[in-house]
Amino acid sequence: MLDQRLEEYAKSDIYPFHMPGHKRKWRAAADPYAIDITEIDGFDNLHHAEEVLKDAQERAADLYGSKQAYYLVNGSTCGLLAAIGATCRRRGSILVARNCHKAVYHGIYMQELTAYYLYPKINAYGIACAIAPEQIKKELEQHPDVDAVLLTSPTYEGVVSDITQIAELVHAHGIPLIVDEAHGAHFGLAEDAAAFPDSAVHCGADLVVQSLHKTLPSYTQTALLHVCSDRVPEGRVAQFLDIYETSSPSYILMAGMERCIRYMRESGAQKLCSFRERLNRFSTRMTVLQRLKLIGREGFSKEQAFDFDASKLLIYTGNAGFTGKVLYDMLLQDYGLQMEMAAGNYVLAMTSLMDTEDGFERLAAALLEIDAQLSQKCPDSENTRSNVTADYASENVSQFAHLYTPQEQVCTIAKALDGMQETVELKNATGRIVTDYIYLYPPGIPLLAPGERITEKAVKDICLCLESGFTVHGLLPDGQIAIMK
Predict the structure, then answer these.
(1) What are phi and psi of 421, to 5 degrees?
(2) pLDDT (tens digit, 9 = 90+) per residue, 129-158?
(3) pTM reported for the whole predicted model
(4) Distances in whole angstroms, Cα of residue 154 to Cα of each of 101, 151, 381
(5) Residue 228: exposed, middle, or buried by beta-carbon count in 10 A (0-12, 13-18, 19+)?
(6) C-alpha–C-alpha distance, residues 203 and 393, integer Å
(7) Is the Cβ–Cβ distance between 291 and 375 less than 8 Å?
């Protein structure tokens, strides 16, 4: 049973290099059942906050420096849905990064929008790069009628775009910029401003969505939606939050958010600096790795990443002779270390200011031991490492980069999803209109989105991915693909 399994897991020695950011180290301030209430006298109403919840949200806005902050108990998902609804006319259009979270695509569907996509480049490690300001400028010139621009920064892997310059370009067209900063709730709060990238709240974005639970000590599905300018009426945002957020918000979750905000106000600035020092020490220890590799800021050129979030530990396996999934399983089964995610050629460990010295030590010791074993099997690895890296990187770029190219958009996502559908074998789908998202995860960027025409190249690319052992999401269990009738 779930409750019993969770209790057993909590007693285990498995260390969490994954979200939520409290890392199971915080203990509840009170018995959760004792404080599980509804909107009774004295406890306000989240959808019409006038008292204690109004004050709580004002403290959150004050911490981050936003004009207004809204508590989200349905995660960043409902914040993104509300942001899109508040900024885009029904059946209007939006300029959006192709590697956005699926909630963004759901918002596009709900508003029946035409989406114009910004495709991030893929670097030598198979990781999606930043969206360049030049891309924004070009697309806005080609699509001057868009209602808003939406980007993800940082990405899942920690890549940050130049939000300041992008915001200037977007505002020059008289429209708002929405930033999905779900993985950057710790941005802009450190005592040393250089410890982590600055928050989009401070860089000119109009609406910013942050998941408190991803990188800060807060319960899962707690988040904030920041209104940062007058370009988006607050009343409009509140209207759409009333649609997408539950009418019975959990007071347990909201109390956890209040506790998180209070902690960050009182101790967060210094704690984040200490956290960054631990990350620096860990990174220094990893420089001796021979077959494995810790990808940091140096893994991206300035064009590929305006900035990088050092709290995302990317451990590259391209020179190790096995996939990221193999390392992921090895760390869990042999060392009791639970990673956040495994990719084709890297593993992602998510860290937060709640991680302990012991946790970092366990991960460092495990990686050094695995790397030493690999080097013993291949004693000439030091001499051949640079060539292996170059060869693998070249192959990886050619394998991934050509997959993510603009597709012909025949109709909107809404029309494709709402229309009559049928299924065909993938090999017979050329020329038809796809009605589902077809993508590799990671990186989670759609190869095809609903409403796009399936080209012969797309069919070949999908088949190549399947033959190469990649997991392709969106195909039916029998390998068929859903298309418009």
Answers:
(1) -125, 160
(2) 999 999 999 999 999 999 999 999 999 999
(3) 0.94
(4) 12, 9, 34
(5) buried
(6) 33
(7) yes
